[in-house]
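Dear colleagues,

As part of the handover before I leave the project, I'm documenting each prediction I ran so the next person doesn't have to rerun anything. This entry is a single chain, and its sequence is reproduced below.
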Amino acid sequence: MKPKEHLLSTLKRIDRRGYKAYMDIKGAYDFGRFSLSVDHVQGDPFAAPSRVSVKATRADTGFDPSLFSNDIRRVAAADFLTRTFHRAILNTAKGSRGMGKSGMVSIDNPGQEVIRRNSCVISNDTIEVRFVVGLPAAGRTILGHEAVAIFFDEIPEMVNKALSVKNVGADDFSAHVDSIEDQEHLRKLLSEMGLSAFVADGSILPRRSGVDDRPLARDAVPFRSPESLKVSATLPHRGEVHGMGIPAGVTLIVGGGFHGKSTLLTAIERGVYPHIPGDGRELVATDPMAVKIRAEDGRYIEKVNISPFITNLPMGRDTIQFTTENASGSTSQAANIMEALEMGTSLLLIDEDTSATNFMIRDERMQELISKDKEPITPFVDKVGKLNTDNGVSTILVMGGSGDYFDVADTVIAMENYVPVDVSERAGEIARKHAASRTDEGGEKFGEITQRRPNPSCFNPSKGKREVKIDAKGLKKILYGRLDIDLTGLAQIVDVSQTRAIGNIIHIYATRYATKGLTLKEGIVMVISELEEKGLDMLLPYKVGNLAAPRIFEVAGAVNRMRTLRVK
């Protein structure tokens, strides 16, 4: 490691020279209470900014060692320090110092969820924060004195504000870490409590808008559990909490339009992740193996066994190894369910608003008009109970248009002005009073769940002269070589850093595990296990700070949407 004076003299020496002279600053420097490393130098002022990291010993920061005492607390601490460093950047960096990205300082700032990421890496002895810096230039001429101000004034001030116990609110830091540990503890309690999900009393579920995931600032109705569904849990730091427990089995969420049905389901789908204090959904905990399902017209499907739902297609098309370039609403929803089951889901989350109507229900009038031997689709209402009985998979379903689901529901929750009411008994009485005359078309069993083995040759990440070209283009698109992977149907991707990681996980899977003849599930499980052991840095041969861990379901969902996918 070089002394910081070496960086200073280099920046002064290359002032007013051509931009490529910035390559001379690459390396690590000793700034006393922290070290600074220039890990990658951008090619020009308009290119992706340079990657920089700072590292301090945990002892020098003065932070309480209990904040890092286990893996969950380290993830929470890294999240807190990333957010703190982001605020330090906003309060310190002067921004534009030339053309293009000159003077920009930025870190991979998280959203409302707390996810394992590599913007901050905490080891037994050190804390490393990774961010990017736009090296200043006028045209392609280096502005060395502006760079000196960034490296010797701004960055040390950011480190002082974000990595020192004197300047970081110790109480806020501790509360953040304790809150995340409580949430993960609550999530682990669900199975032993026989629950699919838990929503604490007082939670604020509505969001500000469709593009602003922060809690609604005004007029939000605090959540209040019906007495019949109220349960309590004891958490390590918060103590006893009370709220609505949604039992395992088949649960309907019903109610009039705009009364909060979908808002509750969205909070439950996001409850697979912990949330920051103040989000309003900190104590919404969901089975971590839950998957949101929707219809997805036009998606690609490769050899998925959709026969539990669809058989006897015209022209004798195979539904045990169903393949299509352009799925309908019903076939896409069937495939989405079967792919989630293939990966081991234990809870399906479905909203009728984003479902195919003919997949969800077929009433007695339609059954009489179109006989079963002429209708390939077995509606979900006739399979949902068998899915739970045969496979132990629960379903939470928003349903406002068909009372036929009363016959198969274990629990029915009505939302009235954003307040839940347990109407299970009333729904049962109505079902008995108005007995359905439709015929159950689901057979005796749910049906087979098939494991598939992708062909390794279908994964080609090359583009032009580059052997590997993988990148995220926003939250819901991956560029994988020459292929665009559309992730619009995967509702539980919440951070573009997860999208970046998914693309690289697919590459690791394709090169290390697909060649071994493993099933898709076995291969992805192996990659994620390796990821948990070695960290996100294993995904790339160089150091970055913009990756976050996805779940197995979103990785598999991306693989399944690759139009080059071929299954053996």
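The radius of gyration is 26 Å. The chain has three domains: 2-168, 198-450, 456-560.

All the best with the project,
I.
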